[in-house]
Amino acid sequence: MSKGVLEINDCGLRVFDGSNEVLESPGVAIINRQEILTGTGALMRARNHPTQVNHQFWRRLSLESVKSENPGCRHHADLAYCHLKHIAELCDLPDEIALAVPGNFTREQLALLLGIVKESPFNTASLVDSATACLGSCAPRGVHLHVELHRHQTLVSRIEVNEHAVLDIAETVNEAGLQHFQEAWARIFTDAFIMQCRFDPLHSAEAEQQLYDMLPQWIAKAMRQGEVMAELDDRTAKVSLRQLQDASTPILSRVRAMIENLGETSSVVFVSHRWAEIPGGAQLAERIHLLPHNAVAQAVEQRWQEIHSDSGNLRLVTSLTAAPAGSVAIQINITTESAATHLLHGHRALAAQQPLFVSWQEGKLRVTPTPPSHPAATITNHAGRLALRVDAGAQLMLNGEEIAAPVNLNAGDRIGAANFDDVITAISVEHYGA
After folding, report:
1. CA 331, 335, 337 angle in degrees (round to 5)?
2. pTM > 0.85
3. What CA–CA distance (Å, rounded) separates 426 from 331?
4. Which domains can be identified in the chain, with CATH numbers?
5. What percent of the chain has pLDDT over 70?
6. Percent of the chain whose predicted confidence (pLDDT) is above 90
7. H-assigned helices in 170-240
8. pLDDT > 80? residue 307
Protein backbone atom coordinates (compact mmCIF):
# COMPACT_ATOMS: atom_id res chain seq x y z
CA MET A 1 0.00 0.00 0.00
CA SER A 2 1.54 3.29 -1.10
CA LYS A 3 1.80 6.19 1.36
CA GLY A 4 2.14 9.86 0.59
CA VAL A 5 1.55 13.45 1.65
CA LEU A 6 -0.73 16.27 0.60
CA GLU A 7 0.88 19.52 1.77
CA ILE A 8 -1.53 22.45 2.09
CA ASN A 9 0.20 25.68 1.10
CA ASP A 10 -1.45 28.06 -1.36
CA CYS A 11 1.91 28.91 -2.97
CA GLY A 12 1.44 25.40 -4.30
CA LEU A 13 -0.40 22.41 -2.91
CA ARG A 14 1.98 19.48 -3.30
CA VAL A 15 1.36 15.76 -3.61
CA PHE A 16 4.14 13.35 -2.61
CA ASP A 17 4.34 9.62 -3.17
CA GLY A 18 6.66 8.60 -0.38
CA SER A 19 9.22 11.42 -0.42
CA ASN A 20 8.97 11.99 -4.18
CA GLU A 21 7.06 15.05 -5.33
CA VAL A 22 4.41 14.11 -7.87
CA LEU A 23 2.63 17.41 -8.45
CA GLU A 24 2.49 21.05 -7.36
CA SER A 25 -0.60 23.17 -7.98
CA PRO A 26 -0.90 26.85 -6.96
CA GLY A 27 -3.94 27.94 -4.95
CA VAL A 28 -5.53 30.08 -7.66
CA ALA A 29 -8.95 29.81 -9.29
CA ILE A 30 -10.63 31.42 -12.31
CA ILE A 31 -14.43 31.42 -11.99
CA ASN A 32 -16.84 32.16 -14.80
CA ARG A 33 -20.36 31.14 -15.63
CA GLN A 34 -19.30 28.00 -17.53
CA GLU A 35 -16.35 26.64 -15.56
CA ILE A 36 -14.07 26.78 -12.53
CA LEU A 37 -10.40 26.56 -13.46
CA THR A 38 -7.82 25.94 -10.72
CA GLY A 39 -4.08 25.50 -10.33
CA THR A 40 -1.43 26.32 -12.91
CA GLY A 41 -3.95 26.90 -15.67
CA ALA A 42 -5.70 29.53 -13.57
CA LEU A 43 -2.41 31.18 -12.58
CA MET A 44 -1.42 31.54 -16.25
CA ARG A 45 -4.69 33.36 -17.01
CA ALA A 46 -5.02 35.39 -13.81
CA ARG A 47 -3.78 38.70 -15.24
CA ASN A 48 -5.98 38.34 -18.31
CA HIS A 49 -9.11 37.83 -16.19
CA PRO A 50 -8.59 39.91 -13.02
CA THR A 51 -12.30 40.14 -12.14
CA GLN A 52 -12.70 36.34 -12.25
CA VAL A 53 -9.69 35.46 -10.07
CA ASN A 54 -9.81 34.13 -6.53
CA HIS A 55 -6.49 33.31 -4.82
CA GLN A 56 -7.73 33.71 -1.24
CA PHE A 57 -9.79 30.54 -0.85
CA TRP A 58 -7.22 28.48 1.04
CA ARG A 59 -6.20 31.31 3.37
CA ARG A 60 -9.85 32.20 4.02
CA LEU A 61 -11.16 28.63 3.96
CA SER A 62 -14.75 28.91 5.21
CA LEU A 63 -18.39 28.90 4.18
CA GLU A 64 -18.12 32.62 3.48
CA SER A 65 -20.08 33.47 0.34
CA VAL A 66 -18.26 34.22 -2.91
CA LYS A 67 -19.72 36.50 -5.58
CA SER A 68 -20.15 34.17 -8.50
CA GLU A 69 -22.59 33.32 -11.26
CA ASN A 70 -21.31 29.74 -11.33
CA PRO A 71 -23.66 27.43 -9.38
CA GLY A 72 -20.70 25.26 -8.37
CA CYS A 73 -19.08 28.13 -6.48
CA ARG A 74 -21.04 29.28 -3.46
CA HIS A 75 -18.17 29.82 -1.02
CA HIS A 76 -14.43 29.35 -0.50
CA ALA A 77 -14.90 25.72 0.55
CA ASP A 78 -16.36 24.95 -2.90
CA LEU A 79 -13.21 26.32 -4.53
CA ALA A 80 -10.99 24.26 -2.22
CA TYR A 81 -12.96 21.14 -3.17
CA CYS A 82 -12.66 21.96 -6.89
CA HIS A 83 -8.93 22.42 -6.47
CA LEU A 84 -8.47 19.06 -4.72
CA LYS A 85 -10.62 17.32 -7.32
CA HIS A 86 -8.55 18.88 -10.12
CA ILE A 87 -5.28 17.79 -8.46
CA ALA A 88 -6.58 14.22 -8.16
CA GLU A 89 -7.34 14.17 -11.88
CA LEU A 90 -3.76 15.11 -12.76
CA CYS A 91 -1.86 12.33 -10.97
CA ASP A 92 -2.08 8.87 -9.50
CA LEU A 93 -2.72 9.32 -5.79
CA PRO A 94 -1.04 7.20 -3.10
CA ASP A 95 -3.38 4.75 -1.36
CA GLU A 96 -3.10 6.66 1.91
CA ILE A 97 -2.39 10.34 2.42
CA ALA A 98 -1.04 12.29 5.38
CA LEU A 99 -2.51 15.77 5.31
CA ALA A 100 0.17 18.33 6.29
CA VAL A 101 -1.37 21.65 7.29
CA PRO A 102 -0.14 25.09 8.42
CA GLY A 103 -0.23 25.83 12.12
CA ASN A 104 -2.47 28.88 11.82
CA PHE A 105 -5.54 26.98 10.58
CA THR A 106 -8.36 27.38 13.11
CA ARG A 107 -10.32 24.44 14.53
CA GLU A 108 -13.23 25.44 12.30
CA GLN A 109 -11.01 25.50 9.22
CA LEU A 110 -9.51 22.11 10.08
CA ALA A 111 -12.97 20.59 10.53
CA LEU A 112 -14.09 22.06 7.21
CA LEU A 113 -10.91 20.87 5.49
CA LEU A 114 -11.43 17.31 6.73
CA GLY A 115 -15.00 17.38 5.46
CA ILE A 116 -13.85 18.59 2.04
CA VAL A 117 -11.08 16.01 1.81
CA LYS A 118 -13.49 13.25 2.82
CA GLU A 119 -15.63 14.07 -0.23
CA SER A 120 -12.57 14.21 -2.50
CA PRO A 121 -10.61 11.29 -4.01
CA PHE A 122 -7.92 11.60 -1.31
CA ASN A 123 -7.85 8.83 1.31
CA THR A 124 -6.60 10.68 4.37
CA ALA A 125 -5.00 8.60 7.12
CA SER A 126 -3.45 11.33 9.29
CA LEU A 127 -3.38 15.06 9.96
CA VAL A 128 -0.10 16.70 11.00
CA ASP A 129 1.28 20.18 11.53
CA SER A 130 3.86 20.83 8.80
CA ALA A 131 6.34 22.73 10.99
CA THR A 132 6.29 20.13 13.78
CA ALA A 133 6.90 17.33 11.30
CA CYS A 134 9.86 19.11 9.71
CA LEU A 135 11.67 20.01 12.92
CA GLY A 136 10.91 16.76 14.71
CA SER A 137 13.07 14.89 12.24
CA CYS A 138 16.12 17.19 12.16
CA ALA A 139 16.26 19.86 14.89
CA PRO A 140 18.62 19.78 17.89
CA ARG A 141 17.35 20.21 21.44
CA GLY A 142 16.09 23.70 22.19
CA VAL A 143 13.53 26.23 20.99
CA HIS A 144 13.61 26.73 17.23
CA LEU A 145 11.57 28.42 14.52
CA HIS A 146 10.08 27.19 11.26
CA VAL A 147 9.40 29.86 8.63
CA GLU A 148 7.10 29.04 5.72
CA LEU A 149 6.14 31.28 2.81
CA HIS A 150 2.49 31.25 1.70
CA ARG A 151 0.79 33.18 -1.08
CA HIS A 152 -0.47 36.03 1.11
CA GLN A 153 1.49 35.68 4.34
CA THR A 154 4.48 34.18 6.10
CA LEU A 155 3.92 31.72 8.93
CA VAL A 156 6.46 31.59 11.77
CA SER A 157 6.05 28.55 14.06
CA ARG A 158 7.93 28.11 17.34
CA ILE A 159 8.76 24.49 18.14
CA GLU A 160 10.12 23.24 21.47
CA VAL A 161 12.40 20.24 20.95
CA ASN A 162 13.29 17.90 23.80
CA GLU A 163 12.28 14.24 23.79
CA HIS A 164 9.41 15.43 21.60
CA ALA A 165 9.08 18.26 19.11
CA VAL A 166 6.00 20.23 20.16
CA LEU A 167 4.30 23.15 18.44
CA ASP A 168 4.24 26.06 20.88
CA ILE A 169 2.81 28.89 18.79
CA ALA A 170 2.27 29.82 15.13
CA GLU A 171 2.16 33.50 14.20
CA THR A 172 1.21 35.06 10.88
CA VAL A 173 3.07 37.92 9.20
CA ASN A 174 0.46 39.54 6.99
CA GLU A 175 1.27 41.19 3.65
CA ALA A 176 4.47 39.14 3.51
CA GLY A 177 3.57 36.41 1.04
CA LEU A 178 4.81 35.30 -2.36
CA GLN A 179 2.22 37.56 -4.00
CA HIS A 180 3.66 40.64 -2.26
CA PHE A 181 7.21 39.78 -3.32
CA GLN A 182 6.10 39.25 -6.92
CA GLU A 183 4.24 42.56 -7.02
CA ALA A 184 7.34 44.37 -5.69
CA TRP A 185 9.57 42.71 -8.29
CA ALA A 186 7.07 43.38 -11.07
CA ARG A 187 7.29 47.10 -10.27
CA ILE A 188 11.09 46.95 -10.59
CA PHE A 189 10.92 45.23 -13.99
CA THR A 190 8.13 47.52 -15.19
CA ASP A 191 10.14 50.62 -14.27
CA ALA A 192 13.21 49.16 -16.00
CA PHE A 193 11.28 48.54 -19.23
CA ILE A 194 9.77 52.04 -19.12
CA MET A 195 13.12 53.75 -18.41
CA GLN A 196 15.30 51.68 -20.74
CA CYS A 197 12.99 51.06 -23.72
CA ARG A 198 9.92 53.22 -23.19
CA PHE A 199 7.73 50.14 -22.95
CA ASP A 200 5.13 49.67 -20.23
CA PRO A 201 4.42 45.95 -19.65
CA LEU A 202 1.26 46.88 -17.77
CA HIS A 203 -0.31 48.58 -20.81
CA SER A 204 -2.19 45.39 -21.63
CA ALA A 205 -3.38 42.33 -19.75
CA GLU A 206 -1.46 40.06 -22.15
CA ALA A 207 1.87 41.80 -21.54
CA GLU A 208 1.26 41.88 -17.79
CA GLN A 209 0.55 38.14 -17.80
CA GLN A 210 3.79 37.50 -19.70
CA LEU A 211 5.72 39.59 -17.20
CA TYR A 212 4.39 37.60 -14.25
CA ASP A 213 4.95 34.30 -16.09
CA MET A 214 8.61 35.23 -16.62
CA LEU A 215 9.28 36.53 -13.10
CA PRO A 216 10.50 33.20 -11.60
CA GLN A 217 13.04 32.74 -14.41
CA TRP A 218 14.28 36.31 -14.20
CA ILE A 219 14.62 36.21 -10.42
CA ALA A 220 16.52 32.90 -10.53
CA LYS A 221 18.91 34.23 -13.16
CA ALA A 222 19.55 37.45 -11.24
CA MET A 223 20.32 35.45 -8.10
CA ARG A 224 22.85 33.33 -10.01
CA GLN A 225 24.53 36.07 -12.00
CA GLY A 226 23.98 39.29 -10.06
CA GLU A 227 21.80 40.77 -12.81
CA VAL A 228 19.40 39.72 -15.55
CA MET A 229 18.63 40.92 -19.06
CA ALA A 230 14.86 40.58 -19.08
CA GLU A 231 13.26 40.06 -22.49
CA LEU A 232 9.61 40.83 -23.13
CA ASP A 233 7.77 41.56 -26.36
CA ASP A 234 11.07 42.03 -28.29
CA ARG A 235 12.34 44.51 -25.70
CA THR A 236 15.21 44.02 -23.27
CA ALA A 237 15.80 45.66 -19.89
CA LYS A 238 18.56 45.10 -17.35
CA VAL A 239 17.74 44.64 -13.66
CA SER A 240 20.33 44.03 -10.94
CA LEU A 241 20.08 41.66 -8.00
CA ARG A 242 20.61 44.65 -5.72
CA GLN A 243 17.43 46.31 -7.07
CA LEU A 244 15.43 43.13 -6.37
CA GLN A 245 16.93 42.81 -2.89
CA ASP A 246 16.01 46.41 -2.11
CA ALA A 247 12.45 45.78 -3.31
CA SER A 248 12.24 42.71 -1.06
CA THR A 249 13.68 44.42 2.03
CA PRO A 250 10.47 46.01 3.44
CA ILE A 251 8.70 42.64 3.32
CA LEU A 252 11.67 40.74 4.73
CA SER A 253 11.96 43.26 7.55
CA ARG A 254 8.47 42.38 8.80
CA VAL A 255 9.35 38.68 8.79
CA ARG A 256 12.64 39.33 10.60
CA ALA A 257 10.80 41.30 13.28
CA MET A 258 8.53 38.31 13.96
CA ILE A 259 11.54 35.95 14.04
CA GLU A 260 13.29 38.17 16.57
CA ASN A 261 10.13 38.33 18.67
CA LEU A 262 9.57 34.56 18.81
CA GLY A 263 13.14 33.24 18.78
CA GLU A 264 15.81 32.82 21.44
CA THR A 265 19.55 33.47 21.27
CA SER A 266 20.31 29.82 20.54
CA SER A 267 17.38 29.28 18.16
CA VAL A 268 18.01 27.97 14.68
CA VAL A 269 15.61 29.32 12.05
CA PHE A 270 14.51 26.52 9.73
CA VAL A 271 13.23 27.98 6.46
CA SER A 272 11.39 26.17 3.68
CA HIS A 273 12.93 25.71 0.24
CA ARG A 274 10.78 28.56 -1.10
CA TRP A 275 12.99 31.13 0.65
CA ALA A 276 15.95 30.09 -1.50
CA GLU A 277 14.07 31.65 -4.44
CA ILE A 278 13.59 35.03 -2.70
CA PRO A 279 16.40 37.63 -3.04
CA GLY A 280 17.59 38.12 0.52
CA GLY A 281 15.58 35.13 1.76
CA ALA A 282 18.69 33.26 2.86
CA GLN A 283 19.51 36.16 5.20
CA LEU A 284 16.26 36.09 7.19
CA ALA A 285 18.10 35.36 10.42
CA GLU A 286 21.61 35.09 11.83
CA ARG A 287 21.46 31.30 12.21
CA ILE A 288 19.47 29.74 9.41
CA HIS A 289 18.99 26.24 8.02
CA LEU A 290 17.47 25.73 4.57
CA LEU A 291 15.17 22.71 4.49
CA PRO A 292 15.04 20.48 1.38
CA HIS A 293 12.00 20.79 -0.90
CA ASN A 294 10.60 17.48 0.36
CA ALA A 295 11.28 18.06 4.08
CA VAL A 296 7.65 17.47 5.10
CA ALA A 297 7.36 14.29 3.04
CA GLN A 298 10.64 12.90 4.41
CA ALA A 299 9.55 13.63 7.97
CA VAL A 300 6.12 12.02 7.50
CA GLU A 301 7.71 8.95 5.91
CA GLN A 302 9.97 8.54 8.98
CA ARG A 303 7.09 9.04 11.46
CA TRP A 304 4.26 7.33 9.57
CA GLN A 305 3.33 4.88 12.33
CA GLU A 306 3.37 7.64 14.93
CA ILE A 307 0.95 9.91 13.08
CA HIS A 308 -1.19 7.28 11.35
CA SER A 309 -4.77 6.87 12.55
CA ASP A 310 -6.46 3.47 12.23
CA SER A 311 -9.77 4.68 13.65
CA GLY A 312 -10.55 7.23 10.97
CA ASN A 313 -11.09 9.89 13.65
CA LEU A 314 -8.27 12.22 12.73
CA ARG A 315 -6.71 14.57 15.25
CA LEU A 316 -4.14 17.23 14.48
CA VAL A 317 -0.69 15.95 15.46
CA THR A 318 1.38 18.80 16.95
CA SER A 319 3.80 16.66 18.99
CA LEU A 320 6.20 14.11 17.52
CA THR A 321 9.13 12.09 18.83
CA ALA A 322 12.28 14.13 18.26
CA ALA A 323 15.33 12.75 16.52
CA PRO A 324 17.94 11.32 18.93
CA ALA A 325 20.20 14.13 20.16
CA GLY A 326 23.38 12.37 19.11
CA SER A 327 22.20 11.88 15.53
CA VAL A 328 21.48 15.54 14.77
CA ALA A 329 24.00 17.37 12.59
CA ILE A 330 22.64 20.31 10.65
CA GLN A 331 24.19 22.81 8.32
CA ILE A 332 23.71 26.40 9.47
CA ASN A 333 24.28 29.40 7.24
CA ILE A 334 25.43 32.22 9.51
CA THR A 335 24.62 35.57 7.94
CA THR A 336 26.90 37.68 10.13
CA GLU A 337 30.57 38.03 9.22
CA SER A 338 31.39 34.51 10.40
CA ALA A 339 34.05 32.30 8.93
CA ALA A 340 32.95 29.52 6.60
CA THR A 341 33.92 25.92 7.37
CA HIS A 342 32.57 24.06 4.30
CA LEU A 343 31.63 24.59 0.67
CA LEU A 344 28.15 23.47 -0.38
CA HIS A 345 27.66 22.40 -3.99
CA GLY A 346 24.36 20.77 -4.89
CA HIS A 347 23.70 18.28 -2.08
CA ARG A 348 27.37 17.87 -1.07
CA ALA A 349 29.12 19.82 1.68
CA LEU A 350 32.92 19.59 1.45
CA ALA A 351 35.04 20.34 4.52
CA ALA A 352 37.83 22.74 3.59
CA GLN A 353 40.63 21.67 5.93
CA GLN A 354 42.63 20.85 2.77
CA PRO A 355 42.71 22.91 -0.46
CA LEU A 356 39.65 22.68 -2.71
CA PHE A 357 39.62 23.48 -6.42
CA VAL A 358 36.92 25.16 -8.50
CA SER A 359 36.65 24.40 -12.21
CA TRP A 360 34.07 24.04 -14.96
CA GLN A 361 33.63 20.80 -16.80
CA GLU A 362 31.02 19.86 -19.40
CA GLY A 363 29.12 23.09 -18.86
CA LYS A 364 28.93 22.79 -15.07
CA LEU A 365 30.75 24.34 -12.15
CA ARG A 366 32.72 21.84 -10.04
CA VAL A 367 34.46 21.85 -6.68
CA THR A 368 36.85 18.97 -5.91
CA PRO A 369 39.58 18.10 -3.38
CA THR A 370 41.89 17.02 -6.22
CA PRO A 371 43.29 19.58 -8.68
CA PRO A 372 41.69 19.45 -12.15
CA SER A 373 43.73 20.00 -15.32
CA HIS A 374 42.41 23.57 -15.64
CA PRO A 375 41.43 25.03 -12.25
CA ALA A 376 39.51 28.30 -12.17
CA ALA A 377 40.14 29.00 -8.48
CA THR A 378 41.63 27.54 -5.32
CA ILE A 379 40.18 27.68 -1.80
CA THR A 380 42.70 27.30 1.02
CA ASN A 381 42.42 27.29 4.81
CA HIS A 382 44.62 29.75 6.70
CA ALA A 383 44.24 29.65 10.49
CA GLY A 384 40.59 28.72 10.22
CA ARG A 385 39.73 31.27 7.50
CA LEU A 386 38.93 30.17 3.95
CA ALA A 387 40.62 32.20 1.23
CA LEU A 388 39.55 32.19 -2.43
CA ARG A 389 42.15 32.88 -5.14
CA VAL A 390 41.08 33.04 -8.79
CA ASP A 391 43.51 31.67 -11.38
CA ALA A 392 44.70 33.90 -14.20
CA GLY A 393 42.21 34.20 -17.05
CA ALA A 394 39.28 32.77 -15.07
CA GLN A 395 36.19 34.90 -14.54
CA LEU A 396 34.31 34.01 -11.37
CA MET A 397 31.74 35.98 -9.40
CA LEU A 398 31.29 36.33 -5.65
CA ASN A 399 27.80 37.34 -4.55
CA GLY A 400 27.08 38.64 -8.05
CA GLU A 401 30.28 40.70 -8.39
CA GLU A 402 33.32 39.70 -10.46
CA ILE A 403 36.29 38.68 -8.31
CA ALA A 404 39.34 40.82 -8.98
CA ALA A 405 41.61 39.82 -6.05
CA PRO A 406 41.97 37.09 -3.42
CA VAL A 407 39.20 37.28 -0.81
CA ASN A 408 38.32 35.65 2.51
CA LEU A 409 35.06 33.69 2.48
CA ASN A 410 32.31 34.22 5.03
CA ALA A 411 29.35 31.91 5.63
CA GLY A 412 26.69 32.72 3.06
CA ASP A 413 29.05 33.82 0.27
CA ARG A 414 28.06 32.48 -3.17
CA ILE A 415 30.63 31.63 -5.85
CA GLY A 416 29.40 31.45 -9.43
CA ALA A 417 30.16 32.27 -13.05
CA ALA A 418 28.28 34.53 -15.44
CA ASN A 419 27.21 31.80 -17.85
CA PHE A 420 26.67 28.92 -15.42
CA ASP A 421 23.56 28.04 -13.43
CA ASP A 422 25.44 26.37 -10.58
CA VAL A 423 26.62 28.17 -7.45
CA ILE A 424 28.98 27.08 -4.68
CA THR A 425 27.96 28.40 -1.26
CA ALA A 426 30.31 28.93 1.67
CA ILE A 427 28.62 27.67 4.84
CA SER A 428 29.23 27.09 8.53
CA VAL A 429 28.32 23.61 9.81
CA GLU A 430 27.58 23.04 13.47
CA HIS A 431 27.25 19.63 15.12
CA TYR A 432 24.94 18.84 18.03
CA GLY A 433 24.93 15.96 20.43
CA ALA A 434 27.59 13.36 21.05
Report:
1. 115
2. no
3. 11
4. 1-138+293-321 (3.30.420.40), 140-290 (3.30.420.40), 334-431 (2.60.200.20)
5. 96
6. 63
7. 178-197, 205-225
8. yes
